[in-house]
Amino acid sequence: MRTIAVTRELNAGIGNCELTFLPRSEIDFGRAQQQHQDYQSALASLGCETVVIPAPSGLADSVFIEDTALVLDDFAVMLRPGVASRRPEVAGVAEVLRQYKLLKAIEAPGTVDGGDLLCVGSTIFAGLSTRSNQSGIRQLSNIVSDYGITVETVETAKCLHLKSAVSEVAPGTLLINPDWVSSSTFAKFELIPIDEKEAHAANALRIGADVIYPSSFPRTIDKLARRGLNVVPVDLSELQKAEGAVTCCSLIFSTP
Ligand code: CIR
Q: Domain spans of the chain?
């Protein structure tokens, strides 16, 4: 099996990105491009074949490709992002994914952002957020139930997406900010709480046995390393100004 990482070029208009919790601050486009390049190099260094989709003009947030699709073993679900400005991103991603997977789709009035979907084994935890609604999560549940996958809804309030608050760093081991999501929801897993001085530190991208992770959270990096995890640090400081994180810049999946 090959591991594919689909990414999308940075859009020159990223300064006009959607913002929910952060105030707008100037993004250095050249630096953001270099950081995005380094992120793609980190994926390649861990054995991913990277497929880069060009950036369409006018779609400020298109680098955050995770929000457009959920890619599973047997099929992909094209999502319907919660903000209207991001919905035109989906078509270009579908064109690429259809080369690898059967496509299904979330339809209006449903909305789901991929950042709200945390897959752990045969469960998908779906964040009910400002971006993902009941209709979208119900549609997703109906689609995946035929394949033995269960969807559990998790309410989120203090952060953009569920995966801002919790992500998987090893099979059955979750990195969590317990102030942003209830630990009891994930009681059956091993939980690593972030360092409390690093509120945004719960988003990590697991690639097999390795973890791509922002260099801006050194205290939490120490915790992950002490747990025996191999952390591959990346500097994403410019994309963090757009409320981006490590999971949101790629779609990772296996294919024969
Ligand atoms: C947005 O607000 O939609 C973008 N500025 C950031 C999206 C980040 N996506 C993610 O973490 N999955």
A: 2-255
Catalytic-residue membership of 161 = yes
Using the atom order of ligand 1, give the atom closest to the CA of residue 19: 2
Q: Which of 65, 67, 167 to mutate to test the pocket of ligand 1 (most atoms within 8 A of CB)?
A: 67
| Ligand 1 pocket member 67 (CB < 6 A) | yes
Which homologous superfamily is 2-255 in?
L-arginine/glycine Amidinotransferase; Chain A (3.75.10.10)
The 49-53 sheet, strands edge to edge: 49-53, 2-8, 251-255
248 noted as active-site residue: yes
Task: State how far the Cα of 162 lies from the Cα of 168, in Å rounded to an integer.
Answer: 12
Q: What is the pLDDT of residues 40-55, one digit of tens each?
A: 999 999 999 999 999 8
Tokens in use for 12?
Answer: 């020159």
Residue ID of nearest Cα to ligand 1 atom 12: 115
pTM: 0.98
Q: Among candidates 172, 166, 183, which has minimal Cα distance to 117?
A: 166
Q: Is 115 in the pocket of ligand 1 (CB under 6 A)?
A: yes
Kindly report whether the peptide bond that precedes residue 109 is cis, defined as omega within 30 degrees of 0.
yes
